[in-house]
Amino acid sequence: MIRKAANLSTQVFKKDIEKVPSRNGYGEGLVVAGEKDENVVVLCADLTESTRSHLFQDKFPKRFIEVGVAEQALATIASGMANYGKIPFISSFAVFSPGRNWEQIRTTICLNDVPVKIAGSHAGIIVGPDGATHQMLEDIAIMRALPNMIVIAPADAIETKKAVIEAAKNEKPTYIRFSREETPVFTTEKSPFKIGRAESLWETKSPQVAIIACGSLVYEALLAAKELDNSKIETLVINCHTIKLLDEQAIIRAAKTTGAIVTVEEHQITGGLGGAVSEVLARNFPVPMGFVGMPDSFGESGKPSELLAKYKMKSVDIAKAVKRVIKLKTS
Amino acid sequence: MTTKELEKKANEIRQEVIRMFVAAGSGHAAGSLGMADVFTALYFKILTHDPKRPTWKKRDRLILSNGHICPVRYAAMAHSGYFPISELKTLRELGSRLQGHPERTRYSGFETTSGPLGCGLAQAAGIAYAARMDGARFRTFCITSDGEHDSGNHWEAVMFAGKNKLSNLTCFVDRNFIQSDGDTEDVMPLEPLKEKYEAFNWHVIDIDGHNMEEIINAVTKARMESEEPTVIIANITPGKGVSFMEDLPEWHGKVPNKEEAGKALEELKVAAKEIRKKKEDD
């Protein structure tokens, strides 16, 4: 059952649930963060409307800085501004930032320990028709390897907005990844959100598996939990939006409660949320695991739903992974 | 300080870096020796700063982009009073604040963390831009190598500073014509460098980087410029002051052994005497 304290939308399992691109949450969050703190500035690399940074630009034109198609400058100029005392958000597509400017982020933001916020829009495979070049599926891996960096993959537009507002206040280098495509808005303004705290969304009396998900696929995980429930398989669903500054205790607790874990992410299985969770469990409480995500492959052009189906990241695939891991448990 | 006092101090800094190289056993000798005059002029004449308050808000910012020449910065800062001169011998040691490449989190006076090339000017431009937003009056200086002008990130910053008319930003180019793989004009030609900067809407000043008066005058001109960022192309002899290191690319990425250091210090002490004599003549 949906956990009441999660305060999810009453429409969560309705077919006509509202769908909004999580990038909209980014733009709206920037405006709120900018109103709260005049040190918030936004830099963009020629993708102002695509990343919804124009919402901030319209409101605070003097605090918006265009750097052109220059992602290395985007990161390093922001590093300088943060060094001076500003709180810069840098907006681009995830494949370019942090894809192209990773070393600049490593040296001038993380090692320098300045509070630049890196916003990776158009992350994941659901950017769809643009094809493999633009489908960033490695960003969690490269960002979570960096000391000092916090990595967040919010589940929908409302959670993205909250992540932006919180990140503006956390005084740390922070990466937030989100999508271009419309995805169901199933959290609400009242849903709890704290960077570094995983949220339990679905609970059952005697769960056999915990599904730990992040980003746009948290919703698919909920659909899977409901489908499984219909066939008498009880699960937990945890929204693990913060992948670095990971809520280790919640993960260990889930493993102890269920004895099996399935991770779900719109990212390469290698090095992403699944990797992070298995590192924690291998050290503390090893249990059988299943991994839903991109299987060491590049994507291709196609509709988002076609791609999620082809690369086995739909609710039906999550349900299959749950059944497989239950077999591992008992074998 | 008078010009002659600055020359004397630059000589002391060169001796200091030779001793640091021997203690550390690795590093980049030519760049530090070459830039000793510029760093001395900056710390002892040009910069508005207070060694007792390294985070003073109104200080001029000095961003070192080519972090591998940090020994000369460390020496100049210690001699200015930022930290004890005795600490210089810990260069590159475990636990030292004086890392092989500078880290801001170890000591805020270094301003940034640097070493990977090509990203210092962008950070300096970010600081200058933010300062102008707030009406802050300090100047941001950036030291760059000529070799790192091969990097795209550097030219992105050149474009950004030119577009935004960051006249509160001054970039020094350590124009010594050497880099790891040899002569800069063989590795990836930079000339005509002056014209390149001019094309990007920068104010260009070309100087002898070992002439104190030229260094100081160039910064005075940069301060008067109100429309464009200024680049000071400082023509530098790599390894300056040690005859057997001057102009030889092989000294870019190594340091003298004890015997070579002894010879280097002898040469520098002779040079120091000559500077003292010059002073008496004045």
Describe, in plain words, how this protein is organized in 3D.
The complex is a heterodimer of chains A (331) and B (282). Chain A is of the alpha/beta class. In chain A, 37% of the residues lie in helices and 19% in strands. Chain A has helices at residues 22-36, 54-59, 71-84, 102-111, 139-144, 157-167, 218-230, 248-258, 273-284, 304-310, 315-330, and strands spanning 19-21, 40-44, 64-66, 87-93, 117-121, 150-152, 174-177, 182-184, 199-202, 209-213, 235-239, 242-244, 261-268, 289-294. Chain B has a single domain (3-281), classed as Thiamin diphosphate (ThDP)-binding fold, Pyr/PP domains (Rossmann fold, 3-Layer(aba) Sandwich), CATH 3.40.50.970. Chain B is globular, with a radius of gyration of 18 Å. Chain B starts with a helix and ends with a helix. Chains A and B meet through helix 3 and helix 4 of A and helix 5 and helix 6 of B.
Topology:
The complex is a heterodimer of chains A (331) and B (282).
Chain A: E1 19-21, H1 22-36, E2 40-44, H2 54-59, E3 64-66, H3 71-84, E4 87-93, H4 102-111, E5 117-121, H5 139-144, E6 150-152, H6 157-167, E7 174-177, E8 182-184, E9 199-202, E10 209-213, H7 218-230, E11 235-239, E12 242-244, H8 248-258, E13 261-268, H9 273-284, E14 289-294, H10 304-310, H11 315-330
Parallel strand pairs in A: 2-3, 2-4, 4-5, 5-7, 6-7, 10-11, 10-13, 13-14
Antiparallel strand pairs in A: 1-8, 6-12, 9-11
Helix pairs in contact in A: 1-6, 3-4, 7-11, 8-9
Chain B: H1 3-24, H2 29-34, H3 36-46, E1 61-64, H4 70-80, H5 120-133, E2 140-145, H6 152-163, E3 169-175, E4 178-179, E5 182-183, H7 184-187, H8 193-199, E6 203-208, H9 212-224, E7 230-235, H10 258-281
Parallel strand pairs in B: 1-2, 2-3, 3-7, 6-7
Antiparallel strand pairs in B: 4-5
Helix pairs in contact in B: 1-3, 1-4, 1-10, 3-4, 3-9, 5-6
